[in-house]
Amino acid sequence: MSNKFLPFALPSIGEEEINEVVDTLRSGWLTTGPKTKRFEENFAQFVGVPYALAVNSCTAGLHLALEAVGIQPGDKIIVTPYTFTATAEVIRYLGAEPLFVDIDPKTFNIDPKKIAATLDTVDGVKAIIPVHFGGQACEMEPILALAQKHSLKIIEDAAHALPTHYKGRMIGNFGDITAYSFYVTKTVATGEGGMIVTANPDYAERIRTLRLHGISRDAFNRASSNLPAWYYEVIAPGFKYNMTDITAALGIHQLQKANKFLQRRAEIAAQYTQELTDLPLHTPYLHPNSTHAWHLYVIQLQLEELTIDRNTFIERMNAAGIGTSVHFIPLHLHRYWRDRYGFKPEDFPVALDVYHRAVSLPIYPSMNDEQVARVISTIRQILTEACK
To answer: To 5 degrees, how large is the angle CA 367–CA 373–CA 377?
Structure first.
């Protein structure tokens, strides 16, 4: 068995993506153009929504989504602390305030019961941002019911959730607006990039305009219309968030492989779960109402039964040539969020406990069974030696 270092994540890029990028380079159209439009149309069809708008990151998508639904300075937005900082930082872009709510200890998703308790005691809440952690859907039914009761917007952070289903419906068909990520580690990877989906035509038009400087027509539309190619109007102070055709060229073929990628990720997850359950750790909880995208496979070490902590475990995995990661350092532990809002570590006890135990294992389509077995045997060796 090879001892070559096994990275935590690798994109799965084939000849189809390479050939499409080369075709784009030869076409002379590198920025937002026909391939971006094609990717958007394919994505809308894949998710089953009328509007899909490509952007340069999921962060951009979340920012535009909040702007489109009318978030104003001073508004409060409910969000989980167990996420990457982008989910909350976009709230601050608009001068609004994040209102952190702790997570469910099984799914690591925001806890609807705690959302309800927060809404009963706090005024000024305008929206909820559910984060589908690791690729497992949040409990959308109770979250949508709370949103309806309190007249709130739902902006879904689906950076991990392509393709994820909740009760038979694909994520992207629940909230007002949903944002996806195509970062290099994601289930569909273009290096950088994101997509926004919505069923609301007004939101779609607002986002379409604001993603490129508030210009009424982008360069591709000007080139393909009857108006002079040089003519455009700025109708709002927008942003530089557009996707390039080079990125879209990758996305076109990555999207075609999304279900195939999911099948392999699910196979790896099943192998991990089957072979690790007798060790002092918890494998991911799989909610019966969710079809998991398996962007992440996160184990929880049962530290009470071990002589080592999580960090030592990661160091020993790395020494054995296996990359791992931690998802996530809760936001209330980071200096900016801690100092701005005066948080203490114990303010979100579930997120804190999950963080101290969490290790994300390698899981990506190009992993072969030998590599999966190597991860399993290494974990088994380390934890067997470290049992009390």
So the answer is: 135
3-state secondary structure 197-232: EECCHHHHHHHHHHCECCECCCHHHHHCCCCCCCCC
Q: What is the pTM of this model?
A: 0.96
pLDDT at 235 over 90: no
Query: Do 63 and 239 form a contact (C-beta atoms < 8 A)?
Result: yes
User: What burial letters (b/e) apply to 227-265, b meaning 16+ CB within 10 Å?
Assistant: eeeeebeeeeebbebbbbbbbbbbbbbbbebbeebbebb
Please check whether residue 373 is in contact with residue 5, taking contact to mean a CB–CB distance below 8 angstroms: no
pLDDT at 3: 74
Q: Is 126 tagged catalytic?
A: no
- What are the domain boundaries of the chain? 15-257, 259-386
- Of residues 35, 186, 240, 257, which has the active-site annotation? 186
Smallest CA-to-CA distance from 136 within 166, 102, 113, 167 is with: 166
**Which CATH code of 1.20.120.140, 2.60.300.12, 3.40.640.10, 3.30.2130.10 fits the domain covering 15-257?**
3.40.640.10
pLDDT of residue 1: 42
Query: Rounded mean pLDDT of 185-196?
Result: 98
Distance (Å) of CA 29 to CA 35, 88, 91, 245, 355: 9, 35, 34, 7, 45
**Tens digit of pLDDT for each residue in 94-127?**
999 999 999 999 999 999 999 999 999 999 999 9
Q: 236-265: per-residue pLDDT in tens? A: 999 999 999 999 999 999 999 999 999 999
**Backbone dihedral region of 152: left (phi > 0), alpha (psi from -120 to 50 degrees) or beta?**
beta
Residue 222 has pLDDT above 90, yes or no: no
Q: Which two tokens stand for residue 335?
A: 């200096």
Specify whether domain 259-386 bears CATH 3.40.50.300: no
pLDDT over 70 for what percent of the chain? 97
Q: Where are the beta strands (DSSP E) in 199-316?
A: 281-282, 290-291, 297-301
Query: What average pLDDT does this structure show over 226-235?
Result: 80
Alpha-carbon distance of 300 to 378, in angstroms, equals 16
User: Do residues 363 and 296 make contact, with C-beta atoms less than 8 angstroms apart?
Assistant: yes
Cα 133 to its chain centre, rounded Å, is: 7
